[in-house]
Amino acid sequence: MSINPDSGRVADAPSDNWVYRVLPRSLWPYAQLARWDRPIGWQLLMWPCLWSAALAANVARAASSYSLSQFVWHLLLFVIGSIAMRGAGCTYNDLVDHEIDKAVARTRSRPLPSGRVTRGQAKLFIALQALVGLLVLLQFNVFSVMLGVASLAIVAIYPFAKRFTDWPQFFLGLAFSWGALMGWSAQFGTLSLAAIALYGGAVVWTIGYDTIYAHQDKEDDALIGVRSTARLFAERTRQWLVTLYGLSVLLILASFALAGVGVLAYLGLAVATGMLVWQIVTIDIDDPEQCLALFKFNGVVGLIVFIGLLAALPFA
Q1: If you write DSSP's letter for every residue of 193-257 in order, what string do you get?
Q2: How do the pLDDT tens digits run along the chain, 316 residues long?
Q3: DSSP string of 43-79?
Q4: Whole-angstrom Cα distance, residue 51 to residue 305?
Q5: How far apart are CA 220 and CA 214, in angstroms?
Q6: For the chain, which terminal residue's Cβ has fewer other Cβ atoms within 10 angstroms, N or C?
Q7: Phi, psi of 127 (to 5 degrees)
Q8: CA 34 – CA 27 distance, rounded (Å)
Q9: Residue 98 to residues 31, 85, 90, 107, 115, Cα–Cα distance (Å)
Q10: Could you give the CA distance from residue 221 to residue 227 in angstroms, rounded to a whole number?
Q11: Handedness of CA 122, 127, 132, 133 (dihedral sign)
């Protein structure tokens, strides 16, 4: 997609986004750094958090230790935290990938490679977003605070993964799925096999959907030597998605069984599984627009799993 360099917009975001209608032009580059114009990112980061919180709420309700106000408060914190930390992570990733983004058609109009934001300004913006994330994290118990801090090591490694492995999506999965542990720990101050299985399911789900996303850039990535599962899987992507999405469903199923959730949660998972199968059947890895649409569709998949857990809650 070509774009007028003086428009202040980026080639890989919707032109009618609220950012351009509501924010003053001087703030557009920061909104673009944080990807506020692309909410699917923070939504995909958020869903494992909300799955975990709802899974824990089902267990707490069955044990007569459930608090509706605490549950709603945790959900709100996870939403705010997901937006803040996804924004900080994207800004950090753009700093690391500054030179790479200049060489990729889809990303060279972003704030840093286009020169609309300096590296110093981007670093200050990271600090402000991280501060919001820290304030959110400090609302949880001590175990959860320590667990959240531990995730920063993976977050720091991820932007460099594409330089040393064909599996950078694995590192993204480790980072993006951390909320599957956090929701449980926020409720109980510890972890369990149910939470760990949920985390594993979210990790392989992330590898699957981000492989689809990475097919948009595979030609540019090949030219500049950026590695990805999209390039690794190539024409075998559909077969790999069967394995990844299948394993994701099995691990989430195991987490539900370990937690003892009700039948409505399984129904939600069954509907979500159908949506994953649909992605596998319809994907055209050589159609960038379709790959982007299928990637975004995983936001609906995450929502359906969460709705199933919510629906099971009154019967826990």
Answers
A1: HHHHHHHHHHHHHHHHHHHHHHTTSHHHHHHHT---HHHHHGGGHHHHHHHHHHHHHHHHHHHHH
A2: 445 545 678 877 766 788 888 999 999 999 999 999 889 999 999 999 999 999 999 999 999 999 999 999 999 999 999 999 999 999 998 998 887 788 777 788 888 888 899 999 999 999 999 999 999 999 999 999 999 999 999 998 988 898 899 999 999 999 999 999 999 999 999 999 999 999 999 999 999 999 999 998 888 778 778 899 999 999 999 999 999 999 999 999 999 999 999 999 999 999 999 999 999 999 999 999 999 999 999 999 999 999 999 999 988 7
A3: HHHHHHHHHHHHHHHHHHHHTT---HHHHHHHHHHHH
A4: 7
A5: 11
A6: N
A7: -60, -40
A8: 11
A9: 17, 19, 12, 10, 10
A10: 7
A11: positive
Amino acid at 291: C
Residue that has been written with the tokens 């951390």 in this structure? 178
Pair of tokens at residue 95: 């700093």
Q: Which two tokens stand for residue 303?
A: 């929502």
* pTM for the whole structure: 0.92
